[in-house]
Amino acid sequence: MAQAKADKLIDSTIEALDGGASSVKPKDGASLIKDWITALNKEESLSDVSDELQELHDELTGKEPDGKKISTLLKKLGDQTAKAAKDVEGDQQDSLKNLAESLKEFSKELK
Predict the structure, then answer these.
(1) Neighbour-count burial for 50-64, b at 16+ CB within 10 Å, e otherwise
(2) Is-contact 89 70, C-beta < 8 A?
(3) CA 42 → CA 5, 24, 35, 55, 60, distances in Å?
(4) 10 Å Cβ neighbour count for 65?
């Protein structure tokens, strides 16, 4: 994933999540998730994260999104992101750690 695009996507996601659950509509989240899936599909080592994102996207775009399931998926994505952060260095590591924390905190708001 190109560094500048990755940084922008990380920043956009953190900004959306940090606004709280009441500020993010499922369609907005689904659009952001599609951007992530597109970016991650280029990285074979991240296919499991892409699969989780697809499941989250499907839940958000369904007729009746299940808050508990969404919360579980976000927590899992937060854990995967924290793990991925250990494999990079510098500013991107900090960005991924912040993203992981935002995902986990957002998941708590949905319980």
Answers:
(1) bebbbbbbebbeeee
(2) no
(3) 13, 27, 12, 18, 23
(4) 16
**pLDDT tens figures, 10-21:** 999 999 898 888
Report d(CA 54, CA 5) in Å as an integer: 20
Give this prediction's pTM: 0.88
- Looking at residue 23, its pLDDT comes to 83
Phi and psi at residue 23, in whole multiples of 5°?
Answer: -95, -10
Give the sign of the dihedral formed by CA 13, CA 19, CA 22, CA 28: negative
Q: Could you give the CA distance from residue 9 to residue 81 in angstroms, rounded to a whole number?
A: 14
| H helix intervals, 41-66 | 47-61
Q: What tokens does 13 get?
A: 């996601």
Q: Which amino acid is at 74?
A: L
